[in-house]
Amino acid sequence: MSTTVTPNDQPAIGRVVRRKEDTRLLTGRGHYVSDLQLPRMRHVAFLRSPYGHAKISRIDATAARSAPRVHGVFTGDLPDFAAVTLRALSALPSYVETEQPILARDKVRFSGEPVAAVIAEDRYLAEDALELIDVDYEPLPATVTAWLTPEEPVHAEAPDNVLLQRTFDTGEVPEALAGAHLVVERELVTNRHAGNPMECRAGVALWDGERLTFWSGTQVPHIARNMLAELLGLPEGNVRVIAPDVGGGFGTKAVLYPEDVALCVMARQMRGFPVKWVEDRAEHLLAATHARDHRYLVKAGFSADGELLALDADVTCNVGAYSVYPWTAGIEPLMAGGLLSGPYRLQHYRCTVRGVATNTAPSGPYRGVARPASVFAMESLLDDAAQRLGMSALDIRRRNLITPAEIPYRMPSRLVDDSGWYGECLEKAVATIGYDEFRAEQTRRREAGENPIGLGLACYNELTGLGRAAAAGPRMPFRTGHDACTVRVNPDGRVTVLSGVTSQGQGLETTVAQIVADAVGVPYEDVEVRIGDTNESLWGFGAFSSRQAVIGGGAAHRAGTRVREKILRLAAELYETDADDLSVTGGEIRVAGEQKPLGTLAELARVAYLESNRLPQGIEPGLEATRFYDPIRGAFAAGAQAAVIEVDRTTGELRILKWVCVEDAGTVINPQVVEGQIAGSIAQGLGGALYEHLIYDEAGNLSTGTLMDYLMPTSAEVPDLVIEHLSKPADNPLGVRGVGEGGTLGPNAVLAGALTDALGVRVTHLPLTPAVVWEALR
Amino acid sequence: MSTTVTPNDQPAIGRVVRRKEDTRLLTGRGHYVSDLQLPRMRHVAFLRSPYGHAKISRIDATAARSAPRVHGVFTGDLPDFAAVTLRALSALPSYVETEQPILARDKVRFSGEPVAAVIAEDRYLAEDALELIDVDYEPLPATVTAWLTPEEPVHAEAPDNVLLQRTFDTGEVPEALAGAHLVVERELVTNRHAGNPMECRAGVALWDGERLTFWSGTQVPHIARNMLAELLGLPEGNVRVIAPDVGGGFGTKAVLYPEDVALCVMARQMRGFPVKWVEDRAEHLLAATHARDHRYLVKAGFSADGELLALDADVTCNVGAYSVYPWTAGIEPLMAGGLLSGPYRLQHYRCTVRGVATNTAPSGPYRGVARPASVFAMESLLDDAAQRLGMSALDIRRRNLITPAEIPYRMPSRLVDDSGWYGECLEKAVATIGYDEFRAEQTRRREAGENPIGLGLACYNELTGLGRAAAAGPRMPFRTGHDACTVRVNPDGRVTVLSGVTSQGQGLETTVAQIVADAVGVPYEDVEVRIGDTNESLWGFGAFSSRQAVIGGGAAHRAGTRVREKILRLAAELYETDADDLSVTGGEIRVAGEQKPLGTLAELARVAYLESNRLPQGIEPGLEATRFYDPIRGAFAAGAQAAVIEVDRTTGELRILKWVCVEDAGTVINPQVVEGQIAGSIAQGLGGALYEHLIYDEAGNLSTGTLMDYLMPTSAEVPDLVIEHLSKPADNPLGVRGVGEGGTLGPNAVLAGALTDALGVRVTHLPLTPAVVWEALR
Fold first, then answer.
1. HSE (side-chain half, CA atoms, 13 Å) at B298
2. What is the ipTM of this complex?
3. What is the spatial distance between Cα A341 and Cα A347, in angstroms, rounded to a whole number?
4. Predicted model pTM
5. Please, which residues 231-290 of chain B have a Cβ atom closer than 8 Å to chain A?
6. In the beta sheet, which residues pair with residue A314?
7. Which end of chain B is more exposed for a tag (fewer CB within 10 A), N or C?
8. Does any CB of chain A come closer than 8 Å to the CB of residue B229?
9. Among 3.40.309.10, 3.40.50.880, 3.90.1170.50, 3.30.565.10, what is the CATH number of B33-140+200-246+253-287?
């Protein structure tokens, strides 16, 4: 798919260009939070609860406070900490609002919850001092499974631990089920796992007496800026959040954590001494957000020819000890219920979703938010139904997928699907994987008594680039979905972009530069993109829901287009011609169709900034524009994955022989970046399907607290991936659809389906460890 | 003049508000370049020429290079240094373009010129290593006086040392002189002195492999950014100049110095290791720009009733060894010739000005640029003529000052004066000082044989806020005069301003905040102003020619006004009323005339950023605007000063008994700031008139190289100043005229006139030291 860099006057969009960030990142000059060294910097360590659920009867920090080179010991009862709590809000009537303290007071609710913090001259001293803090805990019964009755509620406000419940109900589900030829019913449980980025959480906070600067690996710097300002009672202008280079986020870093706020509160007390905390892996597994600890009770009715008639579901999501800020306990249940029916035509839909508090780490946004689990549930139903109806897994999907002719399609949850290219994705996936050849080989192997092979399929729709409409639901700190972008032509004719997007490795600097290069009409090489600093860019909602290429890209395109319009207006005046006849490409101004340029953008920029005496009447100096992109709706992205696996009869090992993913990213801005996103998300999906599992014991202790116990896929575990694009332009300025989450949606369903196809067994619990397969083989 | 802070709905303009910068500066949290501590920072010391003029036959840096913890020794012959020279450009045909090397090669041209640089782990080690550099000099004859014939030219390109010469010639000067009743002829010489800010020059340069960041006390960060990018062959977007808090500039820091460029070149070689140089006072006196080393040969014709008929002048300015970058050798001569006739009506004007190279430190812009000297020349002529015509010094000025009725008045140099309020300033000054009472007291003292007293006067026009027209002359790196400003209402309803202005202590954060507060309609306290960072603000030409309140303030006003328009448009839609009926003051929206607000700006800002689903059709999210202000012409500011002095017959001490200054700042944005500017500039003018003198010996050695020899006024030497305003609105959006330089224009002339008035002697050379007065008393 890779293309060589082409000449400057070719469009940048669609090309594989050298990534803007690579020179820096590949030569070791990336600048992550942990690289930040500031004068007089002090280091923080957090004391964390060793209990899943306990009362705190006493904390004695006397010894720690007098430890050598310790500059502060903080507990939740101190006024500055007690005054600040996180209260994630929701407009849902059923929502039970709870408080998350910055440092636990009175009670701890999960193992790993921050109880105290120490500031010392280095991290070692800080950790040593933690051991001198004496905490008396009175253990309470812990609840770790969301669908078992709790002995002791996590929050007094919710005696049954249910923080949020909502029922989607469209059509006549009981009647439709009653009239169905076949009703399939399943109970499916997905495994708690998490984003686990290469770079753990990290923050440096500095209070200069008036202003707070917070360097953070956050995915949402502007929102974090606003939230911190509100929590600390500061004007937003006095808070600056800087997300420098960030080593992976995956949603985990789209949360404002107690540790973040604690750092800022401590920085205020340390006046002028920056405080730094870099999370270690053990802390991360324990206390960063988890996800996908769900149970699906699902029942679907089908006609004899495989038409999906009705879906009745009950979804329980373990949201952990707290409603994560600002997303609430609703983030997974609402996404699960809103998109459970996926890309399939459905009129009768009833689904109750609930978020249940437990004594586990809070769950939060993680690549695909609930969808890897809900796609698994939906696709399992289809596979099951197909088997019982004597259809192929392929045909039952063909029968039910929404088609382009039905677009816009109002899903039973009321979300409006604007794609419809699901059948095309599926057909391309099965064609690429070689469906018929596979069947022949499967038969041959079966007959030869060789290891069995199986083929699995998954189709999914991904809601990307949330617009105003989709974001208007929950009572979040915001109800909108726009980003802003400023495009500046500098006096030398090169372009600086201040974009509201953030990057955790997705190459947004590159993507935005490609968009702006084409919008303005300059070579990609002449565009510099600055992101991640709330003092520079006007506004961005941040990196979540695959929104940035669509929304941040849309804003970049609009700002660049506005600047190009001014360039052409200025050129028309200076060259005494008509703006409509002019074009700007590769930084040169031409009369359309002519080879020889009239002049260069550098010449015009010089006039605009340095020789305004030559500016025509009515044209203001400068060449800059700031624009927002604020669509009503996002852009659904279609995807399908297919894989062939082989099962080793003797070991239960599941080997992936082929993996195909077809996605529709709309206009592909940079094939390499898009494929990188898809490949990475499939790898992460495979991790969730096969290896990653955060397991709590009954007392609420995390049994998988290191990477020895919590298994991650390495490059050796990720098969060669075949990635294909559809490239059907979406209805937005650039025609783009988001990518980056879709890949994670397939693997659970594909592998479960493939295992069924290979062995005839039905998988009900994830992950698909060798032990599970080996049991199935018995 | 001070007023207490008034309620929020009162206009901020015109009030004494608490300065934005004071909390920081007065509590020791100002952040100057020398406060900057970066990891791995290395320190620079410069080896400077001990000769005023010499050939360099050999430099041996071997020993220095192997000195302990020395990381680099650099000389001008190294390719990276030889490749970069400063060539200040001018469009004047007579201009002789010369090169200023970053580090001297072949030849040194003034004592103090940088010859080599050492980078070491601290400044002490770097200075120690300087002593190990062995330079063989072959001394050449030095020229230090611009109006004596040179033995050896400073630059081969200019054998007579004249780098620039221009003759202004309007009317029929010989004829007018021939027909005059009285011709007065004088030779006047002014003393070389300089800005000498409390904070010397300082810079930290960091190259990260792709980008250069230069922290500098510069007055012109955007221009410096552009110049550095051009000199180093970098895109402007890859160069960031940050002027943090700066402790005084006065023009001295409006120059790009060889040391600045050397730091940046060295930073590139040090890849990732920041290099820091903080000038010490000895270096500053030796090698920062000097000024006002001028000779005026002037001849003026008057009618019998004191009308100024003609002026014939020859002005020689010592421009030192180099055309200072980017201002050229023309900065003082052209200003001297362009404004010599000052606020006086004149038709016949001939003036030849020349900039002459000598073996002294380069002269550059310094508060008032040439005008303190040229006002001294002009006012001395008037005082002389008055005495000979038997008129009072007051009446001869009244006779000749331009009046408001003559506005716009085209001066004989073709500059267009838009003020005319000179007579008003003068009358108010003499009324305040008590002219008649003074005369009575003078007579009484004379008769009683007491110490004589004298009264001096000076009138001046100040060209402030250069517009396109005035700046279009010399072939500078720019030919325009605009600034840009971005005004952002944050989602919390408070305002952040990214202004292109810079501040060296003038309180620009405060001034801009007052302007924006009124333009948007919010309390002053809700406005935050960020300046000095080229990565934040779009554009500013910087601090020179008293331009920032006019130009930067104009841009702030326009951007704020644009934002207010959007606020009202949004309010009209949301509150279902007509925008024309609405006002926004104190952050509240009201129907005109009603007490109860409809809502607050915070509510509207929340909609604009966080609830765009509530935005009316056609209104884009956000509340931000970027505007330029780019006037054709600046705004002339009128001023008059009057003082009474007493001369101690026994010591020659000159004591100031009263000092009055009346200036017309147009609209006074902040009386305290304006008065601070005027008081500071008078103090600096007094220093130049009485104490400060940079003296070279014949070999080109600076004899006054420390503050023991170079005398500065302290608060004990500055009299109580009475400052009055006229406040005649100028023809620009805010009605403002610049202040900040005017004060320096008076003291030379006032004190010389007062001495004449007291003793009857004529002063021809400045400064007026006790020795000069004592000589006059003989």
1. 29
2. 0.94
3. 10
4. 0.95
5. 235-238, 272
6. A297, A352
7. C
8. yes
9. 3.90.1170.50
A226 in contact with B at a CB cutoff of 8 Å? Answer: yes
Q: Could you say which DSSP state residue A401 is in?
A: B
Of A236, A484, A620, the CB nearest to B490: A236
B147-167 pLDDT, tens digit per residue, is 999 999 999 999 999 999 999
The string of pLDDT tens digits covering residues B58-83 is 999 999 999 999 999 999 999 999 99
- For A:450-469, CB contacts with B below 8 A are 468-469
The amino acid sitting at B418 is: D
The C-alpha atoms of residue B773 and residue B763 are separated, in whole angstroms, by: 9
The domain A369-469+632-773 is placed in CATH, from the list 3.40.50.10490, 3.40.630.30, 2.60.40.10, 3.30.365.10, at 3.30.365.10
B676: amino acid identity, one letter: G
Residue-level pLDDT at A477: 56
**Residue ranges of domains in chain B:** 22-30+482-629, 33-140+200-246+253-287, 378-465+634-777
Residues of B in contact with A479 (CB under 8 A): 610-613
Write down the mean pLDDT value for chain B.
95
Same fold, A22-30+482-629 and A369-469+632-773: yes
Q: With beta carbons less than 8 A apart as the criterion, state whether A145 and A318 touch.
A: yes
Confidence of residue A2 (pLDDT cuts 50, 70, 90): very low
Chain segment A752-770, per-residue pLDDT in tens:
999 999 999 999 999 999 9
Cβ-Cβ contacts under 8 Å for A400 (sequence gap 6 or more): A306, A307, A308, A344, A345, A346, A382
pLDDT digits (tens, 9 = 90+) for A140-181: 999 999 999 999 999 999 999 999 999 999 999 999 999 999
A22-30+482-629 adopts what CATH topology?
Answer: Aldehyde Oxidoreductase; domain 4 (3.30.365)
CB contact (8 A) between residue A24 and residue B490: no
Across the interface, whether the CB atoms of A24 and B272 are under 8 A apart is answered: no
Is residue B1 very low, low, confident or very high in pLDDT (cuts 50, 70, 90)?
Answer: very low
pLDDT at B5 over 60: no
**A526 neighbourhood in chain B, CB within 8 Å:** 235
Report CB contact under 8 Å: A237, B272.
Answer: no
C-alpha pair distances (Å), A236 with each of A23, B17, B491:
34, 22, 8
Contact list in B for residue A535 (CB cut-off 8 A) is 530, 536
Domain B378-465+634-777 belongs to what topology?
A: Aldehyde Oxidoreductase; domain 4 (3.30.365)
Q: Do A622 and B620 touch (CB under 8 A)?
A: no
> How distant is the Cα of B702 from the closest Cα of chain A, in angstroms?
38
